[in-house]
Amino acid sequence: MNDLARTRERRESRNRWLLLTPALVILIFAASGPLLITLVYSFLTAGDYGGIKWDFSTDAWFNVFFQRDIFDDTLSFADAHLSIFWRSVKLSLLTTLGAIVLGFPTAYFIATRPKHHRDFWMLLIMIPFWTNLLIRTFAVMELIRNEGTLNTLLMAISVIDAPLQILFSETAIIIGMLYVYLPLMVLPLYASMERLDFSLIEAGYDLYASRLAVLRRIILPLVKPGLIAGSILVFVPSLGAYVTPRVMGGGKQLMLGNLIELQFGQGRNWPLGAALSITLLAIVMVALLFYVRVAGRERGGHG
Amino acid sequence: MAKTTGFDIKRQYGFTTIAMICFVSLYLPVILLVVYSFNAGSSVAIWEGFSLQWYRSAWANDQVQEATIRSLIIAFWAALISTSVAVLAALATTRVRRFRGYSAVFAAINQPLMVPEIVTAVALLIFFAGIKVQTGYTGLGYLVVAHSAFCIPFAYLPIRARLQGMDLTLEQAAADLYASSFQVFRRITLPQLWPGILAGAMLAFVISLDDVVITEFVKSAGQDTLPTYMLGQLRRVVTPEVNAISTVLLALSVTMVIAFFFVTRIRK
């Protein structure tokens, strides 16, 4: 390499980092940096009235999973935390499952429309996705609450005598999350299905396969990467959901996001809140790494 | 052979029905929410005639007015800042050979998309609480910075997509004609890039306007935005006033999203 090329390369590199500096400064100041501080806080002692004391302690991490009995000092699992962990995982899995049941046929429907119609159907999926999550949650809440449209209607036609109590239950949280995160399932599924080679399906029918066999043995294996991607895209935000469980669960059915918030409000245990946040982040990162691997494989795979 | 007349190989039993149920249930709750914002009565389930009273009462509510103005100010600054820095970042990371640190930069830019919002919110609460104690400053600046940060990936992605689709020949021709690199950027790159910048800015504006979680944790007392104000109203009796506020916000974001759709389709 001659000198001229080397000088030019050095100048290019300098310009590049100059261009990147403003974005990186903001991101380090208000995204990455605070995360590191949160990690540090999870190893400190809780202050008496919120905040922290600068004493190293692993109590917060210990308290994520265990609790010490104040009378006889025996150790046991932190039941309250574990049951909230379990509820978060359970509700997120059920939401993902529901999203597959509803999203798979929807994506398939869109992918089998004539080409010039598909954009329109996808726009119909995209619009709700880009509109306010809180408002969409409100909309579902107004529909299913005791004085809501659903109950009013059912009582007016005398199907039920008393309103169905759906709101403030785990079912309500699932309905809410399913409603707000469904588009995240349809998007990647549609992307896989759009490239589906229908001559393979035709071959299946030529060999006397039933519709179910075609779905199970040909379509499903081909769109599996999209299915996995969609599942992770729904599971991850469900696990960290805060608004939907707060609105639909009414503060009774806590999920991880609400448990974290409690530590900064009434709980006044910032280190525990920090440790819980890092735990949630770690679970999400594992799911995302899995997603990246699947997405990478899909790009290099069939097609 | 197996293909008898009218046999549709693309068909799966029940799929169209489920798809239709999906589309209807995606829109029905929101449509009902909008309809009842015009209700003359105070119920969000029993229709008592058309009226604009809830819009009037929402607008007469000082808290709503203040929250609206605050939301718009924050969204304006967040969109402006995030789009400006995203343009620069996109120029540095698109149409170049992979450089050392590329993956780290890409991960940093997209971090707000990957980290759960509640985690970012808590991290910012902790960090800003420290700064508030040190400096005593409790203004809107924290919200603007926080919003700018999580809007960056949303502004960056459409700009980057636009840049990737642009051809290099015009810029090379300009450079061949002794244009300086700044001249090339201003006269050739920027005019072609505009739709991407506009799309990015609109997306950032909508994302900032809609944010609840991070705002809820970062805001100081009396700094409600429209979404956090609405969340705070939950404990009270729900009246169509909330529907009226929602409808206005909805109209704003749907307009922006549809405009975004068309702007990204402008010919290169």
Automatic annotation (TrEMBL), chain B:
Q: Which GO terms describe its biological process?
A: transmembrane transport
**Membrane-protein topology:** Multi-pass membrane protein
Residues covered by the ABC transmembrane type-1 domain: 68-260
Magnesium as UniProt keyword: no
The principal location of this protein is membrane
Question: Among its keywords, does the record have Transmembrane?
Answer: yes
Membrane spanning residue stretches? 12-38, 72-92, 113-131, 137-157, 193-209, 244-263
Q: Where in the cell is it found?
A: Cell inner membrane
Task: List keywords of the entry alphabetically.
Answer: Cell inner membrane, Cell membrane, Membrane, Transmembrane, Transmembrane helix, Transport
Instruction: Extract one GO cellular component term from the record.
Output: plasma membrane
Q: Which PANTHER family match?
A: PUTRESCINE TRANSPORT SYSTEM PERMEASE PROTEIN POTI, SPERMIDINE_PUTRESCINE TRANSPORT SYSTEM PERMEASE PROTEIN POTC
Summarize the protein's role: Required for the activity of the bacterial periplasmic transport system of putrescine and spermidine.
Q: Record's family?
A: Belongs to the binding-protein-dependent transport system permease family. CysTW subfamily.
Q: By what name is this protein known?
A: Spermidine/putrescine transport system permease protein PotC
From what organism does this protein derive?
Answer: marine sediment metagenome
